[in-house]
Amino acid sequence: xxxxxxxxxxxxxxxxxxGNFVQKHVRLVARDHTVTVVAVQxxxxxxxxxxxxxxxxxxxxxxxxxxxxxxxxxxxIRNLLYRAIAYRFALAQLTVRPDLIHGHITLDGxxxxxxxxxxxxxxxxxxxxxxxYRSPEALSTMRSLLCRWxxxxxxxxxxxxxALSRGMVANGLEGNYAVVPNVVDTDLFRPTPRGKAGPFxxxxxxxxxxxxxxxxxxxxxxxxxxxxxxxxxxxxxxxxIAGDGDVESVKQLAAAAALAEDSLTISGPHTQQEVAHLMQxxxxxxxxxxxETQGIxxxxxxxxxxxxxxxxxxxIPEIVHDCSLxxxxxxxxxxxxxxxxxLIATGQRTFDSGVLRNSxxxxxxxxxxxxxINQVYERIRLEP
Length: 384
Prior knowledge:
Blueprint: E1 2-7, H1 20-29, E2 34-42, E3 51-58, E4 61-68, H2 76-91, E5 100-104, H3 106-120, E6 124-128, H4 141-153, E7 156-159, H5 162-170, E8 204-210, H6 219-232, E9 237-243, H7 247-256, E10 264-267, H8 272-280, E11 284-287, H9 296-303, E12 308-311, H10 316-319, E13 326-329, H11 334-345, H12 353-364, H13 366-381
Parallel strand pairs: 1-2, 1-5, 2-4, 5-6, 6-7, 8-9, 8-11, 9-10, 11-12, 12-13
Antiparallel strand pairs: 3-4
Helix pairs in contact: 3-4, 6-11, 9-12, 12-13
């Protein structure tokens, strides 16, 4: 099939990792189908109204990406107009009528996909990854109306977790739902022998990877738990916090927790290869989130044979669905986090890296996710 993907989020020169999970889905689809991607990105470095077109071929698909300068954020209507013009400019570069339009992120990729599907007279589907639906009535009136319309017209709505689908429905986004999870590169994220070589050979190595968003990730809670462990047994543990967020803000949180700079490692941003290497060198992955739509870093950790401690929120219980894969805690329960880390570090709770990896490969590996996507596409192709 000839499939046009409209990406509401996509990696760019402004945000190099933003929407990389969408990019992974697209790479996967391009294995079996002809794919074109349209993405637009506001660029504060461009004058208001100026546009730059970047049309490239990447890993089996065509990418049409437009950067645009926008007015001050206070001008919401003008901002929407400039974004719509950028989309129109990008779409004008297309020369082939698609068989199917696949929108990513309902705001605004799914809405644009629905409009284009009506224009071309072809079906559309919407994939959703956003945390915007974590509470009922999370959307403004206008956004809610547009999203409801787009989902209602879609042949399928494809959230990455059951929890996300429930959140969307609770916000009035009725549609034909089927879960298609994020995908993991299981060739990159794979176990290696976890020897004790390196700068902290005697320590039990804890790892956290995220964008450090304080609304969701609760890095402060991880640092508080680690500070307690570190003060009780200096040198027995080492924490690495890595990601593509504001590293300086994390360093300030560490200082507030009375942690010296040499007592932990804070770094970023990192490439996927570097994240895989960090996971292969860790003993335990910690995700102490207030909310997660799914938590792709958990999939990567499990694929690397790394046990996880996470919170009972959002789509996480769908991943850590069995006690053989890790431990789930109540969000914000720092005492339980400290106790759990101690249990695992002292060998009172153990995990089989083969079981961890097999669970991830079976449910989130490329073949598994591609099979789900192709089932959706085939169902739509056969619709009268």
